[in-house]
Structures are given as structure tokens and as C-alpha cells.
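ligand=C2E
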Amino acid sequence: EAKARGEGGHQRYVTGMESRAAERSRRHAELRRAVAEDQFVLHYQPVVTLPEGSMAGAEALVRWQHPDRGLLGPGEFIEAAEETGLIVPLGRWVLREAVRQAAAWRTELGEAAPRTVSVNASPRQLQDPDFAAEVAGALAEAGLPAAGLTVEITESTAVGGGATQTNLAAVREMGVRVALDDFGTGASTLSLLVDCPVDQIKLDRSFVPEPGRDAIARAVLQLAQAMDVEAVAEGVETPEQAARLTEMGYRRAQGYHFARPMPADRLSVLEPMIPGRRAGP
Ligand code: C2E
Ligand code: MG
Ligand code: MG
Ligand code: MG
């Protein structure tokens, strides 16, 4: 560091800083523009019943249709969206689009439509005092019954401040379901489930059972049953895992073994892809 204070070194150091900062602000500008120009799409991943494999719901997962870089997953932009606050307008779009699609599936598929569509909501969104009103507005505009929407939060969101608790209580009061995502990976205590009541717990995929390593999956199911909360196993990749979860008593699962996230129009014609899915009307 001291050496870098020589004229050339100092220059190089500052230039490096500037270009990192410049790169960052360029990425942020790009993201801001993407939000303004609607460069996002939602893919949907089925949540299925065990043991039947019928579609019980679908989770909306956002992707960025980048003009040069192709389709980008949330790992490439959600953090930047959080940092810049762009997650609020982006999340608003995700909510409205998922609710619109959920209502459209009900019209198109009737009984075969996913019963509920899940949307991931970030801490910043839940802290926004307008969140519950936006949810109500989106449901009313699309004509979707509240139970047709599930809002997924993580443990860190659930302990968050601002209007979070008011928003969560308000949407549950409407009949919207709330799910605790990635359960077991946060730093919160089990008392969270008392302080912040939810309708569904999603067992994080790191706890999907492997031979000789299924204690957490069992314990979380028992906890969910005792609290009358639905348990979903995430990240199920193999038939062995699906069988083991079924044996344990899990009734809901999600993962590549059943179906990958896909565009909405592919989910509509999914029937042959999920063994045992009940035929539509
Ligand atoms: P998540 O909500 O826990 O979503 C599940 C992630 O696991 C998805 O990744 C999904 O594609 C992936 N996945 C599903 N089945 C399997 C499997 O069997 N094996 C493995 N290895 N992975 C599986 P994706 O789409 O890349 O999303 C990553 C995360 O980004 C999500 O995790 C969620 O936290 C966040 N995210 C996605 N969409 C949104 C959004 O609209 N808003 C916000 N705030 N966050 C979002
Ligand atoms: Mg999720
Ligand atoms: Mg998850
Ligand atoms: Mg996650």
C-alpha cells in the first residue's frame, strides 16, 4: 500500500478504484434502464403433490432478457437491484405479472391451473408501506382470489423492520398465503414462527435428504405439522429423494426432478411432463 503511494502506483490505485466504481454505476444504469424498458420475464416452476406429482402451485422466478447477454438469472442482478432500490419497482412488476398470469391460467386451464402462484418478495419490498395495498390492487385488477397468491419471504425479511410486520399481517388478513423460503439457512430462532405466523415453510434444498442424512428434513416436517403449516421440500433432484420425502410424510415438493422453471406457455401444456398429473377439464 505504502509503495503504491509513489506517483505511478497512486495513479494506478485511483484509476482502479474509479473503474470499479464506474463499472458499478454502469451496471446500475443498465439495470435502471431494464426496469424502465420492461426487459424482464417470469419463468415458473411447478410445486407438486407427493406422492401423485400433480401440480399444486407454481413459483414465479424472474429472469432478465438482457439485450446483449441473453437470459440472466436472478443471481446476476437481484443483489444490485436490492442495493439500488430498483427491487421495489421490479418487485412490483413481478407481483402484477405473476398475479395476471395466475388469473389467466384459471381461465385457460380451469381445474388444472396451479391453485396458487408464489412470488418472491425482498426485504425492501416488505418495508414499503404501500406493499399490502399493491397486493390488493393487483388481485383486484386481475380478479384473482387472494389464496391464488403466495408471497415468499426469507427469515431475514421476516425479522425486518419498517412496515414489514404490518404488511405481512395485512396480506394474510386478505387471504394471501405467506411462505418462509430457504427455511433453516437463516440466523433466526424458531420463535420467528410464533412472532411471524406463516402458511408454508419451504425446507431449503441443502436439507433435502441423502442416505444417512435426513434428520433436519424430518424435524422440519414435524415442526410444520405441529404448527399446522404446510411443508414444501425444495431442490428435489432425484427419484430417491422424492421417494424418501414421500416416506417421511412430505406432501409438497419442488425441484428439477419434477420440473425446471419454464416460460408460462410451457407450463400450460405441462401435463405429459409430470407423471400422474390430473387431466384438465
Ligand atoms: P428461491 O426462491 O429459493 O428459488 C428457488 C431457486 O432454486 C431457483 O433459482 C430455482 O431455479 C432453483 N431450483 C429449483 N429446483 C432446483 C433443484 O432441483 N436443484 C437446484 N440446484 N436448484 C433448483 P433461481 O431462479 O436462479 O432463483 C434464485 C433466487 O433468486 C430465488 O431463490 C430467489 O431468492 C431469488 N428470486 C428469484 N426471483 C425473484 C423475484 O422475482 N424477486 C426477488 N426478490 N427474488 C427473486
Ligand atoms: Mg422462493
Ligand atoms: Mg428457496
Ligand atoms: Mg433462495
